[in-house]
Amino acid sequence: MPAVAAYAAPSEGAPLAPTTIERREPGPLDVVIDIAYAGICHSDIHTVRGEWGRQHYPLAPGHEIAGTVAAVGSEVTRFAIGDRVGVGCLVNSCGVCAACVRGEEQYCAGGAVGTYGATDRDGTITQGGYSRQVVVTEAFVLRIPDAIPLDRAAPLLCAGITTYSPLRHWKVGPGTRVAIVGLGGLGHMAVQLAHALGAEVTVLSQSLRKKDEGLRLGADRYLATADPETFSANRGGFDMILNTVSAPIPLDGYLGLLDTNGTLVCVGAPPEPMPLRTGALIGGRRSIAGSAIGGIAETQEMLDFCAEHGIAAEIELIDASAINDAYERVLASDVRFRFVIDVATI
Length: 346
Ligand code: NAP
Ligand code: ZN
Prior knowledge:
Strand content: 25-35%
Number of domains: 2
Distance between the termini: 18 Å
Bound molecules: NADP nicotinamide-adenine-dinucleotide phosphate, zinc ion
Order of helices and strands: EEEHEEEHEEEHHEHEHEHEHEHEHEHE
Helix content: 10-25%
CATH architecture of the largest domain: Alpha-Beta Complex
Number of strands: 17
Largest sheet: 7 strands, mixed
Shape: globular
CATH class of the largest domain: Alpha Beta
CATH topology of the largest domain: Quinone Oxidoreductase, Chain A, domain 1
CATH superfamily of the largest domain: Medium-chain alcohol dehydrogenases, catalytic domain
Number of helices: 11
């Protein structure tokens, strides 16, 4: 395979810049994908800035990948040239541990291989979707339903599955009172998905700035966390709270919003620790939990669910030259609701 054009961070904290990366020679089980769109996830920013630990550079991030199949290996059975496909946060796993056998490759005991910045099973360091092509083993390639435009599908591969998986795991449906904390990339998918699952949905955002959009996406209520009244008037008012915030939040206050037996599920992954008083859990037999993306089968289920319910990401399509500016806007909570890179501009 020739080197492919990409945008990568040359070193920790440095702005992303055009470069080339190597892709492996496709093997019999590999699918070669021409990438059309790549979403910008807040995890890309945490990672390239070294907030989650040291990385290998140059690092091309991007794990919300949508495109079409350019070539397939001789043993590939499920995909053909021209198919509309996606790749999310995982590109490999051991395939034999209990988690993999259950279809929860994200919890692979042998170590799931992330789409970028991870050591693949052949020893190479993976490179992500801010690039023109990717080579992925067939088992980790998703089919994008025709009903979803490719650019609006890309963010489903991370933001969609990361919110769908906990909503399903905690059995959110009619009668469930759910609060979504943070209306960013993950949050705006969570609102649409929880609404489509039949739940009563409340957005807890820093301010009321995005209230109209939140209600349009399917929220029943929209409350500002900057207003202390939000916490006093809604004590015990939720069965589940899904925290999508990329920064630490005062957990005790949010736990007080849970009814007895309620669960606060964290998917937001700030590098800093968050203090917690156990009294906030004990008082209502409340739980705090976490959830990581979702397995491959569940990701396909989510894509099909979105197609069936007319759900997709709300995006701002950008040229690759605007990636660094987009990062600053994400950090300022100034995104409606996902930046997606037009990969043809790389
Ligand atoms: P995002 O688009 O930046 O959204 C985060 C939202 O959180 C913001 O839009 C903002 O919403 C709110 N927020 C930001 N800073 C805040 C602060 N200091 N206090 C209170 N609220 C704040 O990010 P994202 O791409 O959705 O990702 C969110 C987090 O999830 C990141 O930490 C990311 O790494 C993590 N993540 C985890 C997984 C997983 O598998 N668990 C997968 C993907 C991403 P408002 O303006 O509405 O307040
Ligand atoms: Zn992500």
